[in-house]
Design brief:
By secondary structure, the chain is mostly helical. 51% of the residues lie in helices and 3% in strands. Strand 1 and strand 2 form a beta hairpin. The protein starts with 12 loop residues before the first strand and ends in a 17-residue tail after the last helix.
Length: 212
């Protein structure tokens, strides 16, 4: 009997995604690439522990890396940050095909949109792919509702577009640090789910954000 993927090597590891035993090499090379690995796979969890100990280097041309984020921006807007992160996790919970690259694409587009809005220009450049576009639209709708509620509330300070830009940049960088770069990775999504399991309220309470 040979590995059902490569049809060459001897199968040695049971793959819960495939429902059959595959070889160790295919497990390592196809994991989160062509195989949709469940988060509780022991081999996947072992690989993730290794990745945590060996942080990957990001290319110099990675978007948004050259932006300077004010040191107090996350702490000043703790609840909004929590609400944004939870909204992403909630969206992905009902979209089982969503992967980290979808989330990062949507966040990058949102950062670019709010940077443009902060300059006084109303112009959007949403993602082209359907799933990132759907997430982008959902988050834009959520923020529009938050701003509307703030405008109706006496004495409430409306979030500035530049503040939102910095929060998106922060979330984008967090995602880059949490994902492993594999096309079917859901490490960032799983991180958001673990950190924001319930809907946060936009009120004064301690943030659960972990600063990267």
């Amino acid at each position: 009997m040979s590995c059902p993927i490569c049809e060459k090597r001897k199968p040695a590891r049971f793959c819960p995604a495939k429902g059959e035993t595959i070889c160790a090499v295919c497990c390592g090379t196809e994991r989160e690439v062509t195989i949709d690995c469940p988060s509780d796979c022991s081999f996947l969890m072992s690989a993730h522990r290794y990745e945590d100990e060996h942080q990957r280097l990001l290319p110099a041309d990675t978007p948004l890396l050259d932006e300077k984020i004010p040191q107090d921006i996350v702490y000043t807007h703790q609840q909004l940050m929590s609400a944004l992160a939870f909204s992403i996790a909630k969206f992905c919970a009902v979209q089982p095909t969503a992967v980290d690259t979808d989330v990062l694409e949507a966040i990058q587009a949102l950062a670019q949109t709010y940077k443009t809005l902060s300059s006084g220009i109303i112009y959007e450049n949403p993602p082209a792919a359907p799933l990132p576009l759907e997430l982008y639209a959902a988050l834009m709708t959520f923020l529009a509702e938050v701003k509307k509620q703030q405008a109706e509330r006496a004495g409430s300070n409306v979030f500035k577009d530049m503040d939102l830009f910095y929060l998106w940049v922060f979330l984008y960088r967090m995602g880059l640090l949490r994902t492993n770069g594999r096309p079917r990775s859901r490490r960032f999504i799983e991180f958001l789910r673990s950190q924001f399991p319930q809907s946060p309220e936009l009120k004064r309470e301690e943030s659960r954000i972990i600063v990267p």
